[in-house]
Every structure is written in C-alpha cells, then in structure tokens.
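lol ok so funny story. i was supposed to be doing the assay writeup but got distracted and ended up predicting the structure for this chain instead. priorities right. anyway since i did it might as well share w the group, maybe its usefull for someone
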Amino acid sequence: MVLAETVATELVGRGDLLRPIDDEGRYAPFPFDVTWQVLQPARLARLDSHFARVAGHWPEAMMVLVRAGVGRAHTLAVSLAVSHLRRIDARLLVLMWHLADRWGKVRVDGVHVPFGLTHQTLGRLVGAQRPSVTTALNQLYRQGCVRRIEDGTWLLGGDPPAMLEKLRDEIAPAPA
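and the output, tada:
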C-alpha cells in the first residue's frame, strides 16, 4: 500500500484469503494506492457469489473460509506488532521466524525461508529504510541468526525461543 511517500508491504501466500479493494480510496479520508507484485508463481481461486451459494450448504467449508480470514487478520496484527519493536534487528529476526513458521522448511543447517526478499522489501515489511535493514542483517549474520544463501533466499540459524529470549529486553516495546 502506498500512502503519501510511504510504502507498506504485506506478504501473502498459500491459504491466505484476499479480496482486492472494490473502490480504492473509498474507505479512507486520504488518497492511497494499492499495487500487487507476484514474487513466485501462484495459483488463485476465485470465490464468487456462485461459490458462496454452493459452499453455504457445507458449514465446514464456510468455517475454513472464516478461519482463513481470521488467520490473515492475525498475521496483519503480528506485522503491526513487529513494526513497533524498537530495534530493526529484532524486527527482522521476529519477521524471519514468523515467515519460517508459516512457510519455512527445516534443514540440517537451519530453517529455510523460501523467499528471495530484498533488503528493500524486508524494510517495507518491518517499517524501516533499506540501509538500516542492511546494517541490521549484517549484525544478525555475525550473530549466526540469519544468512542469505546462494539462491537469494534466507536461512535461519539457532532456535527461535533462545534467540528471541536473548533479545527480549531489546525487543520489548518502550513503555507508553
């Protein structure tokens, strides 16, 4: 979403429920723009009114859709919380483990996050500028927390609870 000179990014994937805005800008007292970029080949299913009429006969199917909608709201809440963390390295570490939990694959050498996210994209995901993201990623690399692998994707090292406990005081938001 582009609002004034700020770009905020959301990463969606398998199982996420999407609905493009019907009339962009209609729901806000200020102008904004929404753009979409596909990072990997994707398959979409269009759930139109015909689908809703048919699926309405199966409460279990409707529960799956409600669960997907609530799950997306939860993911957006996590993203909002991440963007409020004080330190950019903590934001990136929490984001990476969140992505790993959703889409990662456990390997012998760590947890693989299968996205070739650029420093700029990571900055848009955590509410930071690209140069600060680069500095924070270098720090996390030196600590053995994260590294970029040859195909441009990411590998997380260590155990998330141990890493996050180590940064607990730095991750906690400042008192209001």
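The beta strands are 2-3, 6-7, 105-107, 110-113, 146-148, 154-156. DSSP finds seven helices and six strands in the chain.
back to the writeup now i swear
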